[in-house]
Amino acid sequence: MQNVAISGTGVFTPEESISNAELVEAFNAFARRKNSENADAIARGEVEPIPDSDEGFIVKASGIESRHVLNKSGVLDPERMFPLLPERSDDELSVMAEMALKAASIALEKAGRTPADIDAVICAASNHERAYPAIAIEVQQALGINGFAFDMNVACSSATFGIQAAADMIRCGSARAILMVNPEICSAHLEWRDRDCHFIFGDVCTAVVLERADLATAPGRYEIVSTRCLTQFSNNIRNNNGFLRRTREGHMQDRRDMQFRQEGRKVFKQVVPIVAELIQTHLADEKLSADDLSRLWLHQANKGMNDLIGARVLGRTPANGEQPNILQDYANTSSAGSIIAFSKYSDDLQPGDYGVICSFGAGYSAGSVIVRKAA
Ligand code: COA
After folding, report:
1. How far apart are CA 356 and CA 353, in angstroms?
2. pLDDT at position 252, please?
3. pLDDT at position 244
4. Nearest CA owner, ligand 1 atom 11
5. Ligand 1: which of 22, 55, 196, 364 to mutate, judged by most atoms within 8 Å of the beta carbon?
């Protein structure tokens, strides 16, 4: 069995971003417009008026201050409230593949690798632009990688599950090195007209190069000590969009359940203990304790959740920088969040230092990856 290293990561951040102030202004313009359209029904008590959204609430409830998006104008247009991404022909590169290539080129350079060194591509994301052919195979072809590629989806845990899948294949000898990409176009599965969640998501793409530890040479690489994945069915985060939609009556209607929806409070309460226990038992099984950890790179959905998970795992309030958050600038970027945190806040650790990359989300699903900075 081979040991496995994470030898490079990359983040592609879309240029456009939306501040909470801009978001709330657009939402409130939409709400006013809808309320005036429905004025009579509201007066008769048949329709509830849409209340205003509020910047203060968003920061307090989530810690999110801004989010990057592929298209800002469509989201902020009160008549549209949805990104505008022009359709591409079958001969053009897909949007997800384009994002993936940008993140991949950074990760490959950091790893000191070229496509010739890579044997497989995994596209692990919470939504895929089409059913098939796989986005990963498109990325494979665009980079000129030999071997194989496939897409996988474990919602917000896609990246950690992807790391486990890649690491297991490298350990067993199916591949020397694997490129895993996480293009997340969350703006296209978020209902921007829903006040309860319109502030939650942003767009980004991350990439990770994993390879046999004995072949890895990149300075600053991390060895994977072990991985642990867990799932437990829940309807509290759900998106009903799927290929059976057109077989159902009423499929032409604008159905709210075809976008992301959640019971945010329940998710918060139920997922925190699941994740804290996953990390604790994973550490114990590796004969490590929380005191051995130099850093936690957690899923980036909610600052309050991360504060609680960090406190439970470490048994104390995490010190500044011990558990870096990026959600204030990126919002929830689904599977990419913990990888952005890892990519941006892992250079300063010393050889031998331990850390945990951890994601959690719909399914429920949670993944824990214990890493050690290589000598
Ligand atoms: N502006 C102003 N007020 C708002 C609002 C907004 N944009 N959205 C909701 N509110 C109001 C609600 O109407 C509610 O009012 P009420 O008390 O009069 O009924 C109040 O604020 C509290 O709403 P609630 O939804 O309970 O807020 P919360 O404190 O639970 O925060 C989340 C909401 C979504 C930020 C939080 O539950 C969360 O992040 N949960 C975890 C989600 C998660 O990680 N999901 C994973 C996704 S992959």
Report:
1. 11
2. 67
3. 87
4. 196
5. 196
CATH number, domain with residue 237: 3.40.47.10
From 235, 268, 269, 332, the mutation candidate for ligand 1 (largest count of ligand atoms within 8 A of CB) is 268
Number of compact structural domains in the chain = 1
Q: Is residue 280 assigned to a domain?
A: yes
In a domain, 346, yes or no: yes
The 10 Å CB-count burial string (b at 16+, else e) for 14-48 is bebbbebeebbebbbebbeebbeebeeebeeeeee
Per-residue pLDDT of 94-119, as tens digits, reads: 999 999 999 999 999 999 999 999 99
User: What tens digit of pLDDT does each residue of 237-250 get?
Assistant: 999 998 888 777 77
Cα(96)–Cα(87) distance, integer angstroms: 13
Does the reported pTM lie above 0.90? yes
- Ligand 1 centroid from CA 348, angstroms: 35
Coil, strand or helix at 296 = strand
Ligand 1 neighbour 52 (Cβ under 6 A): no
218 lines ligand 1 (CB under 6 A): no
- Cβ(325)–Cβ(340) below 8 Å: no
List active site positions.
Answer: 156
Binding site membership of 57 for ligand 1 (Cβ less than 6 Å): yes
Domain extent, residue 304, equals 223-373
Q: Is residue 72 part of a domain?
A: no
Cα 73 to middle of ligand 1, angstroms: 25
Question: Is 364 part of any domain?
Answer: yes
